[in-house]
Specification:
It contains ten helices and eight strands.
Length: 302
């Protein structure tokens, strides 16, 4: 080694995920799949969860690593809205992660509200028109969105805390963490086509991240959040292809931010690797915004 070299500052030391173990809820499509691929391509063992195990198994066939340099993907069927299902998931994962896990990506979530239909066309000068538009939402939609995007994240974190605690001493100088996938919808001061419940759920996750990070300080487990702008996903594109990926090409979505385009896999991978690897180990209770500058050009609470 040459005199004056600093190998601990080399990219291979900072961003290499070899030997790390992660759980990514909703890891088979959209942003969850981008997260999964970023981790696997850099050596991480990743448990991906969803209610549809057949889709997860197809993801493994297409992208599943080699268990060595590229890491590996392991499918686990989980309904995060069920406490029993979460308990069972931990039982399934625990023997396959004898040294615990280092990262839990609380990523699974849903959007979709009836209030989006016709939202942009109403006359916003008239309270009656706004009231009629808001009334199109159903309480069942709010219940489902808040339960999946907030309540279930709480119970998922609770379920995996023992495995995170077990995994926090596996790498010298690294502290296990929960990374919550939130959204710029949680800070932008507009309804994004009528997505009031979705925006409220993501704003709630901002506060949940701060509270949980504070409550876990003495355990040595960190809590941070990833706050994406517009990326191709089942939510934004309305579906996925056979490769489980979504394209926004031709939709115009994400083109109005300063970057002039929606985010892609490389944008997500860069943010994920910074937060998840040794490079981001000094962050706790923080948020990272891969959004193309959308929170700068839009009216936000930041």
């Amino acid at each position: 080694m040459s005199e004056g070299a600093h190998p601990h500052m080399h990219r291979n030391e900072l961003f290499d995920m070899t030997g790390f173990t992660a759980v990514v809820t909703g890891g088979g499509t959209g942003i969850g799949l981008m997260i999964t691929l970023a981790l696997v391509e850099n050596g991480c063992k990743v448990f991906i969860t969803s209610r549809d195990k057949s889709k997860l198994e197809d993801v493994v066939k297409r992208y599943g690593g080699d268990g060595k340099e590229r890491g590996e993907i392991i499918p686990v069927e989980v309904d995060i809205t069920s406490k029993d299902s979460l308990v069972n998931a931990v039982k399934v994962i625990e023997p396959q992660a004898p040294k615990g896990i280092q990262i839990l990506f609380n990523n699974a979530g849903i959007a979709g509200e009836g209030a989006r239909e016709g939202y942009e066309a109403i006359d916003k000068k008239h309270a009656e028109a706004i009231s009629a538009q808001l009334w199109k939402s159903e309480t069942s939609e709010w219940d489902a969105i808040l339960r999946t995007n907030v309540t279930s994240q709480y119970f998922t974190a609770a379920a995996f805390l023992p495995l995170l605690a077990k995994g926090k001493d596996s790498f010298k100088g690294y502290a296990s963490q929960i990374i919550n996938t939130t959204s710029i919808s949680g800070v932008l001061k507009k309804a994004s086509g009528g997505q009031y419940a979705y925006a409220a759920s993501k704003a709630a996750m901002f506060q949940f991240t701060k509270v949980l990070a504070t409550e876990l300080l003495e355990t040595g487990i960190r809590v941070n959040q990833l706050v994406p702008g517009v990326f191709g996903s089942q939510m934004t594109a309305g579906g996925t292809g056979e490769d489980h990926k979504s394209s926004l090409e031709g939709t115009g979505k994400g083109t109005k931010n300063p970057a002039g385009r929606p985010g892609d896999e490389k944008d997500m991978a860069g943010a994920v690797l910074f937060l998840a690897s040794r490079a981001g180990v000094y962050l706790n209770g923080q948020e990272l915004h891969p959004d193309g500058g959308a929170t700068l050009s839009g009216s936000s609470s930041l």
